[in-house]
Amino acid sequence: MWKKKPVVASAVSGIPIQVIHKHTGLLVHSVEGAAYQIRFLLSNPALAAKLGEQGHEHVREHFLITGNTKRYLSLCLNLLDTR
């Protein structure tokens, strides 16, 4: 997702936390489903580009260490200010 490419992923384990179906990528439950979604994205390049952009933004907001560090430091500052 960081490379702004659409993602087709299996809907198992923690993957649905990272890939939001029809927003940051497409989730599938079988090999046939993956093949269908890949063909679908190849025939819909505008949607593929949109999923790629939204996936990139999702990673930037939720999974980069800089964002997590900023939120942690903000929390610490807020806790110190309330005393």
Question: What would a concise description of this structure say?
Answer:
With 83 residues, the chain is mainly alpha-helical. The chain has helices spanning 15-18, 31-43, 45-62, 65-81, and strands at 8-10, 26-28.
CATH architectural category = 3-Layer(aba) Sandwich
Number of separate structural domains: 1
Poorly predicted tracts of residues: none
- CATH class bucket: Alpha Beta
CATH topology: Rossmann fold
Indicate the overall shape: elongated
- The value of Rg in angstroms is 17 Å
SSE ordering = EHEHHH
Q: Find the CATH superfamily.
A: Glycogen Phosphorylase B
Distance between the termini: 41 Å
Structural features, described:
The chain is built from 4 helices and 2 strands, in the order βαβααα. The protein is mainly alpha-helical and 83 residues long. It has a single domain, classed as Glycogen Phosphorylase B (Rossmann fold, 3-Layer(aba) Sandwich). Strands 1-2 form a two-stranded parallel sheet. The longest helix is centred in the middle third of the chain and has 18 residues, at 45-62. It is elongated.
